[in-house]
Design goal:
The protein contains 26 helices and ten strands. The chain has 772 residues and is mainly alpha-helical. The strands form three sheets. Strands 4-3-5-6 form a four-stranded parallel beta sheet, with helices on both faces. Strands 8-7-9-10 form a four-stranded parallel beta sheet, sandwiched between helices. A two-stranded antiparallel sheet has the order 1-2. α1 (3-35) packs across α9 (305-313), α1 packs across α12 (335-360) and α4 (109-136) runs antiparallel to α5 (154-184). The protein is elongated, with a radius of gyration of 31 Å.
Length: 772
């Protein structure tokens, strides 16, 4: 060994020991942070399906479907880690013997082909990712919020990308030097050809004229650089356990494995029930709860270990932020920034929680069994053992302490766009609702508008606060009788469907039109159905999304009991929220029913020719041809993202004569929320642009005559959004028209689309056929 090899060997050995040691220390710190969370035993099994899920999601990169360039570039970089790791191993051997190759696979042609191909493709991938980041990084000023990287740590991201770039370049340089060195050695001259160096011989040939000592020294230098760059990455990352842009490389595997569904369903639809220790909250046993029981998440240790793992895994890619309707309309909520705040708080607090538990002899005990300030203790201990007071952030409530602002917490519509887009399966909605639960159930701290909503739900069984006797007002003057279970029919057992009208369908004027339309269509198709009338109550969706789990269970339990008593088997609903709650959440309370959304049922009835829509009569234009109605469809979040019902409404629209579908830019799983979910229907938007207005403007931009949807909440919100957009356009036109011919202030002519439910569009065409 020459002096260069000795120096390089010492540096790399020291660097490796330090790098691996610091990295291991960082991994332990993350593990300890995650360990302060409550148990989540259901996230470990079944093992087989979860392992298959990890392979499918990670290798398939399915969550990148809307960003094809990022998908392919990231996949190539990801795959390069395990494959090019072997070049790191061989690098240590090359410090001792520049001609060293790995046993068995060192000169195996297929392996060399794979190594070089992956190296070049990874180089292209990392360059593409760097260019994309540079192009989309925030530039400062008001427009910065539009960048998905707003709030992300740019320095950390560029460091990670630069590391990958340098390592890949070092690999390619080494391959070229290895080729040149092989040409100088008679024992390896047989491999110095394009068969063994398929993508590097072309430039390695330029170095073949160098002397053997020069080539050997170059190999040592390149190998040392590769190793030291890798170990520098280990040190930097190990010193920063909150560096999600780097740690997600390892944590994402575990986070994907532990996601809510072992078969890979997005963590949307039903919310998880409240747990007290190892027991699910049961309102019938509230009096039996221990005095120190905590409902929901009030402090960081109230999260499960999976929740804390979520925060540590965040890559800061900002795809959740990019899709969030609250963030897009100027609200303070960003799912990414919320996750990062919780991550940093968990990392800062974990040592003190661990120290407090160690002092009490309950290391790793879940919160609820031991608090931070345990009986007999003066407070959390300093982890150094100095006896000084611990970090003031340890054990404090998350809301109001500087970790989460109340405006952030209550801005969420629970639309699920963040969860749908997250490439590492972070469950943002569950975390937000759990924090709301604590605020409502333990602190009685919630927006004042919700106090009235809760009272109306408690007293009248609906968020409008109207009497139960008015639940059948929608059926007045229908040309047929609507049977009521208990009055006109004994039970639902002999019926095709129980028609669940819902609170909006019974009380809200626009939604009542949809209810009447569905009833008439079912009657026309010969479908036997009945309603509960005064026996129906709110499903509890607004209460649950607002965090009032106790009120939800009271309402839901009453409905489950009623539906069971009347023998309900198949239920049809017009509200996306009712659909999600009855179909996906009532099973948590023992209520299992076959639930179908009205668009699914109506689509089926048209396909079976039990309903026959025909083109409406042409307008009096003299053309003699039926008018084409341009329709754009808005996906309700709780029908689409939460329950994957994207196609039935569109199929139904395609079956309507005279309808031309014009999709909005954001549709299906990327649809933009109307703003009503998460109990936001009952809250005012005092910050930024109204979400409904932003969505209405997008719909108007399609040039549609009609905005069709399939949820009464969406109908209300979009109708208000269209009205606001039209008013704003008129105001702008009036200003622009001042001084124009015809008089000052003359408004411009604008098209105002109608907002309606798909059922009403179908009814118009079915009636047209009956008239003919």
């Amino acid at each position: 060994m020459n002096a260069l090899q000795v120096v390089a060997g010492v540096l790399t050995v020291v660097g490796t020991v330090v790098g691996v040691g610091v990295f291991a220390r960082g991994a332990v710190r993350i593990a300890r942070t995650v360990r302060i969370g409550r148990p989540a035993p259901e996230r470990w099994r079944p093992v087989g399906p979860r392992l298959l899920l990890v392979v499918r999601e990670i290798l398939g990169h399915g969550r990148f479907q809307h960003k094809p360039v990022v998908r392919h570039a990231h996949w190539l970089v990801m795959v390069s880690f395990p494959i090019l790791f072997f070049t790191l191993v061989s690098g240590y051997g090359q410090l001792v013997d520049p001609g060293f190759v790995l046993p068995l696979v060192g000169h195996l042609a297929p392996w060399e082909w794979v190594t070089e191909a992956i190296a070049w493709l990874s180089l292209a991938g990392i360059l593409a990712l760097i260019v994309l980041r540079v192009r989309t990084s925030p530039r400062g000023g008001p427009g910065s919020r539009r960048s998905r990287f707003f709030g992300s740590n740019a320095a950390q991201a560029y460091f990670v990308e630069a590391t990958v770039l340098l390592v890949v370049v070092a690999v390619l340089v080494l391959r070229g030097l290895e080729y040149a060195l092989a040409t100088q050695d008679a024992s390896t001259a047989g491999v110095a050809n394009a068969w063994h160096f398929p993508l590097t011989a072309w430039y390695g040939q330029a170095w073949a004229s160098w002397s053997v000592p020069t080539l050997e020294n170059a190999v040592v230098v390149a190998a040392a650089i590769k190793i030291l760059v890798s170990m520098t990455w280990f040190v930097v990352v190990g010193l920063q356990p909150t560096m999600g842009v780097a740690w997600h490389r390892f944590l994402a595997v575990l986070n994907v494995y532990a996601q809510r569904s072992p078969v890979g369903e997005v963590a949307l639809g039903p919310l998880q029930p409240v747990r007290v220790g190892d027991v699910t909250l049961d309102v019938a046993a509230l009096e039996d709860l221990p005095d120190d029981a905590r409902l929901g998440v009030g402090a960081i240790e109230d999260f499960t270990w999976k929740g804390l793992l979520d925060f540590s895994t965040c890559t800061e890619c900002g795809r959740c932020q990019e899709q969030c309707p609250a963030w897009a309309t100027g609200k303070p909520l960003s799912p990414k920034l919320l996750t990062l705040a919780l991550r940093d708080h968990a990392a800062a607090t974990a040592p003190y929680l661990q120290a407090a538990r160690a002092a009490s002899g309950s290391i790793g005990a879940p919160s609820g069994s031991i608090g931070i300030n345990t009986p007999g203790a003066s407070g959390p201990m300093d982890p150094s053992g100095s006896g000084v007071p611990a970090d003031p952030h340890a054990g404090v409530d998350l809301v109001g302490s500087g970790v989460i602002d109340p405006d952030v917490l209550w801005a969420c519509t629970t639309c699920g766009a963040c969860v749908q887009q997250c490439p590492v399966d972070i469950e943002h909605v569950d975390a937000i609702v759990d924090i709301r639960r604590y605020q409502v159930l333990m602190e009685s701290a919630f927006p004042k508008e919700l106090a009235g909503t809760f009272t109306k739900l408690e007293r009248q069984g609906n968020p409008w606060g109207l009497p139960a006797r008015a639940r059948l007002d929608w059926a007045k003057d229908l040309p047929f009788d609507v049977p009521v279970i208990g009055a006109d029919v004994e039970s639902a057992a002999g019926l095709d469907y129980l028609f669940w009208v819902g609170c909006a369908g019974a009380y809200e004027e626009r939604a009542k039109k949809t209810t009447r339309a569905v009833a008439e269509l079912l009657h026309t198709a010969g479908v036997s159905f009945a309603v509960l009338g005064e026996g129906e109550g709110c499903t509890g969706d607004p209460a649950r999304r607002a965090g009032n789990e106790v009120l939800f269970q009271l309402l839901a339990s009453a409905n489950v009991e009623t539906l069971t008593e009347v023998g309900a088997q198949s239920i049809v609903v017009t509200c996306a929220h009712c659909f999600n709650t009855i179909a996906r959440e009532y099973p948590q309370l023992g209520g299992r029913f076959d639930v179908v959304h009205h668009t699914e049922l109506l689509n089926r009835l048209v396909a079976e020719e039990r309903l026959t829509p025909v083109a409406p009569e042409p307008a009096e234009s003299g053309s003699g041809a039926a008018d084409i109605q341009r329709v754009t469809y808005h996906d309700p979040c709780y029908l689409g993202r939460h329950n994957q019902r994207y196609e039935p409404p569109r199929e139904l629209l395609s079956l309507l004569p005279g309808v031309e579908l014009a999709e909005m830019p954001r549709n299906r799983e990327r649809s933009f929320c109307c703003g009503a979910g998460g109990a936001r229907m009952w809250l005012e938007e005092s910050i930024g642009t109204r979400i409904s207005t932003a969505r209405a403007e997008e719909a108007i931009g399609t040039g549609a005559d009609v905005i069709a949807t399939a949820c009464p909440f969406c109908t209300v919100m979009l109708a208000d959004g269209v009205k606001a957009s039209a008013s704003a356009a008129v105001a702008v036109g009036a200003t622009a028209g001042a001084g124009a011919p015809g008089g000052p202030g003359l408004p411009v002519q604008i098209g105002v689309p109608e907002v309606t439910d798909i059922a009403l569009l179908l009814l118009d065409r079915v009636r047209a056929g009956e008239v003919r």
